[in-house]
Design brief:
With 167 residues, the chain is of the alpha+beta class. It has one domain: Aminopeptidase (3-Layer(aba) Sandwich), CATH 3.40.630. The chain has five helices and seven strands, in the order E-H-H-H-E-E-E-H-E-H-E-E. Strands 1-2-3-4-5-7-6 form a seven-stranded mixed β-sheet, with helices on both faces. It starts with a strand and ends with a strand.
């Protein structure tokens, strides 16, 4: 898998993976693609965005993505830990036809490399307690589970598992 920093021109491919991996249904349910794409463009690539998007490609097709930025800019989740010079990984996804082949671990570890290069000394992330594949990837990548919290952005009964990794 070829990894690189994404640009706004990659939005259609990123959207496609997000949709197939379930992110769009979870966070933009019922909204048409035509209204979601401009929102994603602003959030990920807008002039006020401090977000970095990494993509993984196979044969020119985007098959994975990861999104991170400075932890201090995110309002959720809040937990009593050191925040200065830490990144927050908003999430990553792999196209289902490529799942189970190590691409999730690869994109997560590549994201860490980009975070280090941008001067971060560690990263936080949170994973839905029912997302078994992502939980396995974070454990495999040696993330430390630091909390389990209720989170209004999750389905009822689904917790946020908060992870931290210091570089």
């Amino acid at each position: 898998m070829k990894l690189r920093k994404a640009t706004a021109k990659d939005i259609e491919g990123i959207y496609s993976v997000m949709e197939k991996a379930g992110y769009i249904a979870a966070f933009y349910s019922g909204k048409p693609k035509e209204s979601v794409i401009p929102k994603l463009l602003g959030e990920l690539f807008g002039t006020k965005s401090n977000t970095t998007v990494i993509i993984g490609e196979e044969n020119g097709e985007i098959i994975a993505y990861s999104i991170f930025g400075p932890y201090a800019q995110y309002k959720s989740p809040r937990f009593p830990e050191e925040k200065e010079n830490f990144a927050y990984c908003m999430g990553f996804g792999v196209h289902p036809k490529f799942s189970g082949k190590g691409y999730g671990t690869l994109i997560l570890l590549a994201t860490e490399d980009f975070e280090r290069k941008e001067g971060y000394k560690g990263v936080y992330t949170d994973v839905a307690s029912n997302n078994k594949a992502s939980l396995r990837v974070h454990e495999k990548a040696k993330y430390e589970k630091i909390a389990e919290t209720s989170d209004p952005k999750r389905l009822i009964g689904v917790k946020s598992i908060v992870f931290k990794k210091v570089f």
